[in-house]
Design brief:
Elements (H helix, E strand, L loop, with lengths): L1 H5 L6 H14 L34 E10 L19 H11 L8 H4 L3 E2 L8 E12 L40 H4 L31 H6 L6 E8 L12 E9 L5 H8 L4 E4 L16 E16 L7 E10 L6 H13 L6 H7 L34 E7 L16 H6 L18 H27 L24 E6 L2 E5 L14 H10 L1 H20 L1
Parallel strand pairs: 3-9
Antiparallel strand pairs: 1-3, 1-4, 2-3, 5-8, 5-9, 6-7, 7-8, 10-11
Helix pairs in contact: 7-8
Length: 546
C-alpha cells in the first residue's frame, strides 16, 4: 500500500488529471451518490431534497457572442472531443459552466444552442480573444430586439439553487461558491440602481439590465478561463463565418537566433500562397485546397530584456501573423522554419521554396540575391514549434458588427451607445477588489513577474558553480564552429529545443507522400470503415424509431 502511494509522489499536475479522467472514462457504472443525495444511514430521517426542475421553455433566449481568454497549457485544445482526453477541453469546461448557471439547455447540446467558434486552437495553444456565438437565456421581456426569440411568463427562477454542482474539469466540486461569486442568487436580477420598475407600468428593459453573463460565468469557471465581454448579435450571425481575419502571436526569445534573418523569412509569407508544406497533413480532413491569404507577418521586440550579465535567453520578441484562415498547425510549422532560418542553418529563401509547390506555376525569386528556387511539391519532414508560446490574439469582424460590453453600466453615454465601456472612466457598477477582472489578471501578471525574477536569480546562483555552455548559434564568423560529434540544440520555442549532432538541410530530408496519395489511401481504408460505421448507426436509429 505504501509502495502504491509513493508512486504518485513525483507525478505532475497534468499527469494526475490525465490519470483521474482516464479512470472516470473507464468506469462502467457511475456512482449513485450525487451532490443531491447522500447514502442512507441510521441517523438519516429526512428524505433527500428533490431539486426543482428548471423549465427553459418559459424563458426567452437571445443570440449573443462571448469573448473569452484561456491558458492553453491546462487544456486538451479548445474544441470538445468524443471519448477520452488526457486533459479537459476549453469548450467542455465552458459548456459545463453555461449549463450549471442555466444559461443553456443541456438537452439540446452544442447544436441546440447554435454554437459556433471563431477559430479552433489545439492542445497547449492559448487565446486572448476567442469568440463563440450561441443562443442563450435572457431576462429581457418585451425588449425591442430582433434576436429575442421567446416572450416568457413573468415567473422567473434563479439560475443556481443549492442543488446542482459544477465540475470545473479538474475533478473539483465548486458548489457553495458565494465567496468566489458574491452570491449566485442575485446575478440574474435587473440591477436595482437603474431605477427601472420591471412591471406592467414599465416593461421595457435594455441590454444594461440583462443577465450578468460575464460575472456569472467567471464565478464558476476556473481562473485559467476568463470571460471578457459579450455582445448582442443578429440571429443569423456566425462567429466562424463572420470572422474576417485571425490574428496569432508567437512569443520567443532571441537566444541563438538572428532576428533580422528571421524577418527576411517572415515577410515572404504575405499574400496568397499554397501552405501544404507548412501545416500538418491530416487525410481525415480530406483537404484539397491549401491556399490561404496572409495579411501580415512581422517580428517586433517587446522591450523586455531577460537575464542580466549575459546569462539569460536574451530579448523577448513576438511574431505577429494575421490571415483570413489557417490550416492545421500552420502557425507552429511556420515558426519552426523561422527558427531554422534564425539559426542560419537555412537561408530565408527556404520559406519561398516551401511555398513553391506547383511546377506548372513556379514562383519567382523573392529577392534578386536568392539562390535558385526549387519546386517542393511534397512536404519535407521537420518538427513543428512548441504550442506553449502560441496565442490566438483576436478574431477580426466588420466594423460596427460587434459592440462588446461587460456587466458594468457606463457613466459615459457615448461609451454606452458604442458598447465600448473599457474607457478609463469608472462605471457605476464596477466591482472592486477580488471581483474586479482587471485586478485578477493584474495579480496573475505580478505573480508571473515574481516567478521570472526568482528563476533569473536561481540562474545567477547556478552560474557561480557551473560554466555556461558554448553558444554555437546563430552561425556567424565569431561563433564556435559546430564540429562533427558536437551536440547542439535547435530552438523549438517555449524553452525547448531539438538536440542533434548533425544538421540535415530541410530540402535534403525525407519527404511525405503527396496530398492526393494520402487522401486517396485514407478514403480506401479508414474512410471506408467510417462510412460503414455511420451507415450502421443510421440503420440502428431508424430501426429504433420504427
Amino acid at each position: 500500500m505504501a509502495h502504491d502511494a509513493r508512486r504518485f509522489e513525483n507525478w505532475s499536475r497534468e499527469h494526475f488529471i490525465s490519470h483521474i479522467r482516464k479512470l472516470e472514462h473507464t468506469l462502467s457504472k457511475p456512482s449513485r451518490i450525487t451532490p443531491h443525495t447522500q447514502p442512507a444511514t441510521q441517523f438519516t430521517s429526512t428524505p433527500p431534497r428533490v431539486p426543482k426542475p428548471f423549465d427553459f421553455s418559459v424563458h426567452p433566449t437571445r443570440k449573443i457572442a462571448l469573448k473569452f481568454a484561456y491558458q492553453g497549457e491546462h487544456y486538451n485544445g479548445l474544441a470538445v472531443q468524443k471519448g477520452y482526453t488526457p486533459l479537459p477541453t476549453v469548450e467542455e469546461v465552458l459548456w459545463n459552466a453555461l449549463v450549471y448557471t442555466r444559461l443553456v439547455d443541456p438537452k439540446g447540446g452544442f447544436e441546440g444552442c447554435g454554437w459556433e467558434r471563431c477559430g479552433r486552437t489545439d492542445r497547449g495553444v492559448s487565446s486572448a480573444g476567442q469568440v463563440v456565438s450561441l443562443w442563450i437565456r435572457s431576462c429581457l421581456r418585451d425588449k425591442d430586439a430582433s434576436n429575442l426569440s421567446v416572450k416568457p411568463s413573468l415567473e422567473d427562477s434563479h439560475p443556481v439553487e443549492e442543488s446542482g454542482a459544477f465540475n470545473d474539469g479538474y475533478g473539483s466540486d465548486v458548489s457553495g461558491l458565494d465567496d468566489q461569486f458574491g452570491g449566485l442568487n442575485t446575478w440574474d436580477e435587473a440591477p436595482s440602481n437603474t431605477n427601472l420598475n420591471v412591471s406592467a407600468k414599465n416593461p421595457k428593459l435594455t441590454d444594461d439590465d440583462e443577465l450578468k453573463y460575464v460575472s456569472c460565468l467567471n464565478g464558476v469557471l476556473p481562473p485559467t478561463i476568463r470571460v471578457l465581454a459579450w455582445t448582442p448579435v443578429e440571429p443569423n450571425f456566425s462567429a466562424r463565418f463572420a470572422c474576417q481575419y485571425r490574428h496569432y502571436k508567437y512569443f520567443f526569445t532571441s537566444r541563438g537566433l538572428d532576428i533580422e534573418t528571421m524577418r527576411n523569412g517572415a515577410k515572404r509569407l504575405v499574400g496568397e500562397h499554397d501552405f501544404r508544406n507548412l501545416c500538418k497533413l491530416d487525410p481525415g480532413k480530406q483537404i484539397t485546397n491549401f491556399n490561404r491569404l496572409i495579411h501580415r507577418a512581422d517580428i517586433t521586440a517587446l522591450g523586455l530584456v531577460s537575464g542580466e550579465g549575459g546569462h539569460g535567453p536574451g530579448q523577448v520578441y513576438v511574431f505577429d501573423l494575421v490571415g483570413s484562415a489557417f490550416l492545421y498547425n500552420q502557425v507552429r510549422h511556420i515558426m519552426a522554419i523561422l527558427f531554422l532560418i534564425g539559426t542560419r542553418f537555412e537561408h530565408p529563401s527556404l520559406m519561398t521554396a516551401l511555398l513553391n509547390v506547383d511546377p506548372a506555376n513556379p514562383l519567382p525569386p523573392f529577392h534578386p540575391d536568392d539562390p535558385p528556387l526549387p519546386v517542393v511539391s511534397t512536404k519535407p519532414l521537420y518538427q513543428m514549434a512548441s504550442a506553449l508560446p502560441l496565442v490566438l490574439w483576436e478574431g477580426g469582424y466588420k466594423d460596427g458588427a460587434l459592440t462588446w460590453r461587460t456587466d458594468k453600466i457606463s457613466t459615459n453615454k457615448e461609451d454606452a451607445v458604442s458598447g465600448s465601456n473599457q474607457a478609463n472612466v469608472p462605471s457605476q457598477t464596477q466591482k472592486d477588489g477580488k471581483d474586479n477582472l482587471f485586478h485578477q489578471q493584474r495579480t496573475v501578471y505580478e505573480r508571473s513577474l515574481i516567478r521570472a525574477a526568482l528563476d533569473e536569480h536561481f540562474l545567477h546562483a547556478t552560474a557561480k558553480h557551473h560554466d555556461r555552455p558554448l553558444e554555437y548559434l546563430p552561425i556567424r564568423p565569431d561563433a564556435p564552429i559546430v564540429e562533427d560529434g558536437v551536440v547542439f540544440g535547435v530552438p523549438l520555442g517555449g524553452g525547448t529545443e531539438k538536440r542533434a549532432a548533425k544538421y540535415v538541410p530541410v530540402l535534403e530530408r525525407e519527404r511525405s507522400e503527396g496530398v492526393e496519395v494520402l487522401n486517396e489511401r485514407w478514403r480506401q481504408t479508414k474512410g471506408t470503415r467510417r462510412v460503414a460505421r455511420d451507415t450502421e448507426g443510421d440503420a440502428d436509429v431508424e430501426a429504433t424509431n420504427s
